[in-house]
């Protein structure tokens, strides 16, 4: 669905180059998802960042905000949801930033769940020579 207010939606839905780039980027989540994970790439209104920027005391120009792409990537499974977004004047860079921010979030979650002992066991497993039968 595209609107004049949000041409980003049209880019995501209709532009084969953008769609291909999205598929390339979300492939990097393979280690963090299961077949039941739902991955959504969404276009968000960059003008809505004005309130956030104002609250944070950041300088911004509303006209410049309108020129930006604001892309969110959301992973959902079994009621759990993790998401991140990227904002940039280039749609490809906005998608990449969203992916990078989400990967950072996933790695942080993974690091808090996996213990040091589990990591050492995994490292030692890969350092052992293969056993031949």
SSE topology:
Layout: H1 7-14, H2 16-26, E1 38-44, H3 49-56, H4 62-66, E2 69-77, E3 80-88, H5 91-113, H6 116-127
Antiparallel strand pairs: 1-2, 2-3
Helix pairs in contact: 1-2, 2-5
InterPro entries: RHF-like
Taking all Cα atoms into account, the compactness measure Rg is 19 Å
CATH topology: Double Stranded RNA Binding Domain
Spatial shape = elongated
Secondary-structure-based class equals: alpha+beta
The pLDDT mean sits at 86
| Total E-strand runs | 3
Question: Reading side by side through the largest sheet, how are the strands ordered?
Answer: 1-2-3
Helix content: 40-55%
What's the architecture in CATH terms? 2-Layer Sandwich
Order of helices and strands: HHEHHEEHH
Spans of at least 5 consecutive residues with low confidence: 1-5
| CATH H-tier superfamily | Ribosome hibernation promotion factor-like
Give the biggest sheet: 3 strands, antiparallel
CATH class: Alpha Beta
Strand content: 15-25%
Q: How many helical elements?
A: 6
Task: Tell me the distance between the termini.
Answer: 58 Å
Key phrases:
single chain; 133 residues; alpha+beta; Double Stranded RNA Binding Domain; three-stranded antiparallel β-sheet; 6 helices; elongated
Could you explain the architecture of this structure?
This protein has 133 residues and is of the alpha+beta class. The protein has a single domain, classed as Double Stranded RNA Binding Domain (2-Layer Sandwich). 50% of the residues lie in helices and 19% in strands. The protein is built from six helices and three strands. It has helices spanning 7-14, 16-26, 49-56, 62-66, 91-113, 116-127, and strands spanning 38-44, 69-77, 80-88. Strand 2 (69-77) and strand 3 form a beta hairpin. Helix 1 (7-14) packs across helix 2 (16-26) and helix 2 packs parallel to helix 5. The chain is elongated and about 65 Å long. The protein starts with 6 loop residues before the first helix and ends in a 6-residue tail after the last helix.
